[in-house]
Design goal:
heterotrimer; A alpha+beta; B mainly alpha; C alpha+beta; A: alpha+beta; B: two-stranded antiparallel sheet; 9 helices
């Protein structure tokens, strides 16, 4: 009996000690983790836009985040957008509810700060309060509109789709005419040496400069990449030559990676889906904003 | 057992005569799974080194307070705590390396080598000796991982630490997932061969 | 007793899952719907329907469930001779992994009829199991549990016992971990305690299986009991709950994954032990004796298992 009590006491004490160590570690690292993730995300975004290394983004370049929600109720489904209306702290957000045919149901001001909008929990709550009871809201995705002196220069889209093994998560940049500006693979679990080549420059750069028309019908060809094009994709030739190659191959399909056709196809279809869906949605949103004379920050 | 051994002897034992990968053949999963580059080997090696040293020291400090009947649960709890710590730290400060190692950082908790060192060494010896023993074992694991990573990266992709040194890929096969088994098997055979060769020449003399 | 109860519950739940779609389909106009190829949906009606309504493309609204605002372009719709089977042909390839919602106006005098088309859920669950069993075999393609794998694959009988014990412990601990993860760790934001909780649950399961087996079936315990000790410190067991937590699987998916992982481990052990038994008779060079040759054989198995990749049954 005495034995059991000592065992219990000692186990409890060691559990408490362990919990203290882990708890403290969690408290110290969680903020750093969030901060580093944010920094990394920013870096990826700027690199996609071509601001890499010494080339810094000018002050006039600004990013505006739009959040898309799917709103479902008993009688109807609709799409809601949370749009920023001004710069920084004082600006507020506008919530625009658009039905499935592309006409506006309502728009309301939402009283949240930028920091609150960045945090998923408080943002969801604010949107739910705006929509009112009777409808459920589900966060769908977020898009970043990049403006330079007020004019749109690019959109940053992120997405996730099924790869060969598990999910592949990507971020891509398109210009206002929805031509591809860049592609970045954020996370994947493809096989090293085979499917994992999707994160190599020579693969990602194939997407660069493809116009929307080509992206809508993009497919995969099972052939080795021509040697001179491969050099261009790896950035081993001069800037003008890279552009010339991009022009030459701009309406061609994507060359499949050796031994990883399924991964290649998954990325192509995934990117195609993200771009075409986004192009449709932003057109609908722009039309509504124009018709209703709503002012937003982008 | 090892009271008479100096810290240097304890370290060299972990690296050479009782190397966890090539000699004891424990904790083989990461040695096969993620040893595709030297960098991966180094990172996981550091994580294991950290967990091994801290667990050894913790157990050896509290060795008189641990009730013999709950020995194993206490070891598990200690290891799990330090694994959680290194997991959180890596995720926060080295997200890229962490993403490459995937699930294997969390799986350090189930490494037989760590529990074995706690049971065989740390629960009997002084804090100081346990520290050196843990360091030796951790280094032995790290070096083993890096050697396998070196072979696979050099032959598979012609690179070392991500720098292109050969300019071509001699044997793409070596970087493919299933090649891990072959590389480890061949290297073990190679070390066996050296040993046999060494013994034979000695015998001749 | 835990084991039995849990597995019974799961079987019941699976049965219920089996039956619900059947019940739902029995009433109403739509008797069945499925994907055929990647550009076609086939709908079966309970009674013959009006050809003009079915074949008018304008009557349809079709979208993927998460994207209700993006309509898919239907090219043609045809109705079979007896008026019971309609085939909808699409312009672009469908993403058949998604649930598609089809809405038809004016069918059989009803203003609008809505139904969902998706791949069979049971097929999807089965797919998870096959994937864990063959395509992503835990030993040969995920490289987990190698210590035990090389340690206990000398004899067929040992391999079988080990594999069965592993499967049982894996399924039970994975399901318990799922409950802990979803009802305690997530709601209270304690995700960082994953490792401690999961390894604790595995040890608990091993202890429980040990006690139960000892009381219920002493004969079985005598032959399998020795393996239980080896189970605790093994990465393949702890990997299942970690994968489940990473992928946010639900309870059925968790069950199938654990079953597939355990089955895959059993398969790997059995294959390896069959080779090992033969190898004892072979004349192996002294440098390769023991572990090196075992690794080479495992490598060959791994290459063979690579052939399963891309396998899709459902």
């Amino acid at each position: 009996m005495k034995d059991i009590i000592t065992i219990i006491v000692r186990l409890t004490v060691s559990c408490l000690l362990a919990a203290t160590v882990m708890g403290l570690c969690f408290v110290f690292t969680s903020n750093a983790k969030k901060h580093n993730e944010h920094v990394k995300e920013q870096k990826v975004m700027f690199e996609l836009l071509g601001y890499k290394g010494d080339v810094k983004a000018p002050e006039s370049v600004k990013m505006h985040e739009l959040y898309r929600y799917v709103i479902s109720g008993n009688d109807r489904q609709s799409i809601g957008y949370l749009l920023p209306q001004g710069e920084g702290e004082h600006g507020g957000y506008l919530f625009v509810n658009i039905d499935l045919n592309g006409s506006m149901i309502e728009n309301k001001k939402v009283d949240i700060t930028e920091a609150e909008a960045l945090e998923a929990e408080s943002r969801d709550k604010a949107v739910q309060a705006t929509v009112g009871s009777g409808y459920s809201v589900a966060f769908a995705d977020q898009t970043i509109v990049v403006t330079d002196n007020g004019a749109r220069i690019a959109y940053l889209l992120d997405g996730k789709f099924q790869g060969f093994k598990t999910f592949v998560s990507v971020m891509l940049a398109v210009d206002p005419s929805f031509a591809m500006v860049g592609l970045e693979i954020l996370e994947h679990e493809e096989d090293p040496g085979l499917g994992a080549e999707i994160e190599q420059d020579y693969f990602k750069n194939q997407f660069k400069g493809k116009p929307f028309e080509a992206m809508k019908a993009i497919d995969v060809v099972k052939a080795p990449i021509p040697a001179d094009y491969l050099n261009a994709l790896n950035g081993k030739v001069s800037e003008e030559d890279v552009l010339a190659f991009r022009e030459q191959y701009k309406s061609k399909d994507i060359y499949a990676l050796t031994g990883a056709t399924i991964s290649t196809r998954a990325v192509c279809n995934g990117v195609k889906g993200i771009v075409t869906k986004f192009a449709y949605r932003i057109n609908v949103l722009d039309k509504v904003l124009q018709e209703q004379q709503l002012a937003v920050s982008f | 057992m090892a009271n008479d051994k100096s810290s240097m002897q304890l370290i060299s034992r972990g690296i050479l005569s009782e190397n966890p990968i090539f000699k004891l053949a424990l904790s083989m999963c990461p040695a096969v799974g993620i040893s595709t580059t030297v960098m991966n080997g180094l990172m996981l090696g550091i994580a294991v080194l950290f967990v091994q040293v801290f667990s050894s020291v913790t157990i050896s400090i509290f060795k008189n307070l641990i009730h013999p009947r709950i020995r194993i649960p206490t070891y598990t709890l200690t290891i799990a705590t330090w694994v959680t710590v290194i997991d959180l730290v890596l995720a926060a400060y080295m997200p890229e390396a962490y993403a490459k190692m995937g699930i294997f950082v969390k799986l350090i908790v189930a490494f037989a080598i760590i529990t074995m060192r706690l049971e065989m060494f740390a629960c009997k010896e002084s804090v100081n000796d346990s520290f050196w023993d843990g360091l030796g074992m951790g280094l032995g694991f790290m070096i083993g991982m890096m050697v396998i990573g070196f072979v696979r990266e050099l032959l598979g992709s012609g690179m070392i630490f991500g720098y292109d040194v050969l300019g071509f890929k001699p044997l793409l096969f070596f970087i493919l997932p299933s090649a891990g088994f072959f590389v480890v098997g061949l290297m073990m055979a190679f070390f066996n061969w050296i040993e046999i060769f060494y013994k034979r020449t000695k015998g001749l003399k | 007793m835990m084991t039995l109860k849990n597995s019974k519950l799961v079987v019941l739940a699976l049965l219920a899952l089996f039956l619900t779609p059947l019940l739902a389909q029995a009433e109403g106009l739509i008797a069945g719907q499925k994907f055929k190829g990647d550009k076609e949906i086939v709908v079966t009606f309970a009674d013959p329907v009006d050809k003009a309504v079915v074949e008018n493309v304008a009557n349809y609204t079709i979208y993927e469930e998460p994207d209700p605002d993006i309509r898919l372009v239907l090219e043609t719709a045809t109705l079979s001779e007896d008026g019971k089977v309609a085939s909808l042909f699409f312009k672009d390839a469908l993403n058949t992994a998604m649930t598609h919602v089809v809405n038809v106006k004016g069918l059989a005098g009803i203003e609008s009829t809505t139904f969902k088309v998706s791949k069979s859920y049971l097929g999807y669950l089965f797919g998870i199991m096959i994937s864990a069993l063959l395509i992503n075999n835990f030993v040969f393609t995920k490289y987990l549990g190698l210590c035990v794998f090389f340690g206990t694959s000398k004899k067929k009988s040992t391999a079988k016992g080990m594999g069965v014990v592993f499967t049982i412990v894996m399924v039970v601990s994975a399901i318990m971990s799922w409950f802990f993860y979803n009802f305690i760790l997530i709601p209270y934001n304690l995700n960082f305690l994953q490792i401690v909780i999961f390894i604790g649950l595995v040890s608990l399961t091993v202890q429980a299986v040990d006690t139960v087996l000892r009381k219920v079936n002493p004969v079985l315990f005598n032959s399998f009991g020795v393996f239980l000790v080896l189970v605790i410190a093994n990465c393949v067991i702890i990997a299942v709950p970690l994968i489940v937590a990473n992928n946010n699987y639900n309870i059925f998916e968790t069950f199938m994954l654990a079953l597939g992982a355990g089955g895959g481990f059993l398969l790997a052990l059995y294959l390896m032990s069959s080779v090992s038994e033969r190898m004892q008779l072979a004349n192996i060079p002294p440098t390769f004796k023991g572990l090196p040759i075992a690794f080479i054989v495992a490598g060959q198995f791994a290459m063979a298992f690579l052939g399963f990749s891309g396998l899709q049954i459902f």
